[in-house]
Amino acid sequence: MRRTPIVDALQAEEASKEIKICGWVRTRRDAKGFSFLELNDGSCLKNLQAIVDEAVPTYEIIKDVTTGAAVEVLGELVPSPGKGQKWEVRVTKLALLGSADADDFPLQKKRHSDEFLRQIAHLRPRTNKYGAAFRIRSEAAFAVHKFYRDKGFFNVHTPILTGSDCEGAGEMFRVSTLPATGVEAPKEGSVFDNDFFGREANLTVSGQLEAELLAMGLGKVYTFGPTFRAENSNTPRHAAEFWMIEPEVAFADNVDNMDLAEEMTKYVVKHILENCADDIELFAKFVDKELMGRLENIINEPFARVSYTEAVDLLLAAKKKWEFPVEWGIDLQTEHERYLAEEHFKKPVIVYDYPKDIKAFYMRLNDDGKTVAAMDVLVPRIGELIGGSQREERMDVLLERINEMGQNPEDYWWYTDLRRFGSVPHAGFGMGFERLLMLVTGITNIRDVIPFPRTPQHIEF
């Protein structure tokens, strides 16, 4: 007999004479002559109650059916007289699939701290909070793909291993097959000449440059995959491995870019509210009391838009003491970003036209010679959610910018070739998927929206 997921059983239109349910025991309550089991299989937030009568042939195993144990029950799906539940299972057959030592199982029926649950990341998906978080993560990923599919974008796969540094920051994880010790630098050439690729290789920090190449032939593309930053940063907003959503669009400028970023953000948030109601309700009730109002505001209100220069003026005029002093030319810090989104505009804001000296070489230089056509989407509670730009399509300007950033143009010959053969205006951005999940759940630490976080000194699981 085929197993029925609990989410389907709870949504059944009518009773069933025979049903098979498998799941993990959340609680067991014993009464005279029978026991109540609360079962959950991860398919939804709610549990399904199963009633096991002492007349069930295998009732003697009930003593081993403790919290955390996995069971299979066969029985009848019947209306439940209990408050808040439509159906329950009257069990006719009970099987213990996997026991859980009641003394050792760490997820007992009590509240656990996030710090404790990170230490048992292999078990935390069985909790209400993390089960909900990872179901939302799955649904958000689906929403991203659906959004771009419906708009005629092509999903492309860009390399994880790369020989280029997209950001020019140098904070990359090196990949090598050379021995960890005992490798001497040759008198001529590089130590990497004898490595697997014959040159230095790293894990990618972004799929943007390769996505640009594909956009120059396919028109509208996006990549959605893991990226890596070797930043020794232990903040709640940074991880060494995270996922990025990166669209690139040919024949587009920075206004088109801002429009796409706003539309996508609104779409995904709306999709989550419509398709993950129970899970979102948990976060609105127990994690962030202001969550629903903030998400409704994102959906219903147009995002504010200001230039970087205007944003700096607003920050200078604010009667606040900044940890990082404000002046034109600085890179905005999280405290500045959150002030603009949370306190001044009280909604998401897009800041555009940043100083060229704090942005990457590929961003299009504006006519003033001081700023580039960059844009960041800032949201309440998070700060920067999206960063992007119109890309530099002019060959001479691009080469000058690469040299200004101290990089070797020869390393980007394939990238500059795009400017030699049918160059067009184009634009794109990167959205941090984990930051999007923090936005829609109210979770404040990136380590809690990715199943197995990678941070400095932590690579368990």
UniProtKB/TrEMBL annotation:
Keywords: Aminoacyl-tRNA synthetase, ATP-binding, Cytoplasm, Ligase, Nucleotide-binding, Protein biosynthesis. It is an enzyme of class 6 (ligase). Pfam families: tRNA-synt_2, tRNA_anti-codon. It catalyses: tRNA(Asn) + L-asparagine + ATP = L-asparaginyl-tRNA(Asn) + AMP + diphosphate + H(+). GO terms for cellular component: cytoplasm. HAMAP family: Asn_tRNA_synth (MF_00534). This is Asparagine--tRNA ligase. It comes from Halodesulfovibrio spirochaetisodalis. The gene is asnS.
